[in-house]
Amino acid sequence: MMANIRRILNTIINFLTGVSFLAMVILVVGQVCTRYIFNHPATWTEELVSYLFAWASLLGACLVTGERDHMSISFVLHYCSPKMRIVWNVFGEVVAVLFSLIILVFGGVQITNLAMGQLTSSLGIAVGVFYVILPIAGVINTVYALLNIFDILQTGNCKTGDDEEED
Predict the structure, then answer these.
(1) pLDDT of 125-145, one tens digit each?
(2) Would you give the DSSP letter of residue 80?
(3) Would residue 166 be called left, alpha or beta, if left means φ above 0 and alpha means ψ between -120 and 50 degrees?
(4) pLDDT tier, 3 (very low <50, low <70, confident <90, very high otherwise)
């Protein structure tokens, strides 16, 4: 069940980040063409690309959280017992949950609501529409971190910094 949730989330997020990246490439190429070939730049593309980049970055960060590949100072874990490694890994995921809930979800909802009254300069869309990714990413990160905690407690699978896959 947990593996299915993780697989479904990974599929959706990979699709959304891929579409976002493809859209950014198309928009930037279109911007270059309209600017240098037709001498009439489309100003809205630059603005949209910057928002798409933010969305892709936050969704990519969600994937990293799901894979438990986020930054960590793991050299200390080499000196810990296996049980203590589990405690430290769960603690790291709890910190991720707290960050996601407080900063991304709570703060994201606040800033999104605040920005709904402001319009983007070129697109004329409420800025809050683009900020809605903050609480969405917070919820996804929370789900991934909870899945990670479950996995750590269930399997004892702890990352120690030596866990990089060999090619």
Answers:
(1) 999 999 999 999 999 999 999
(2) S
(3) beta
(4) confident
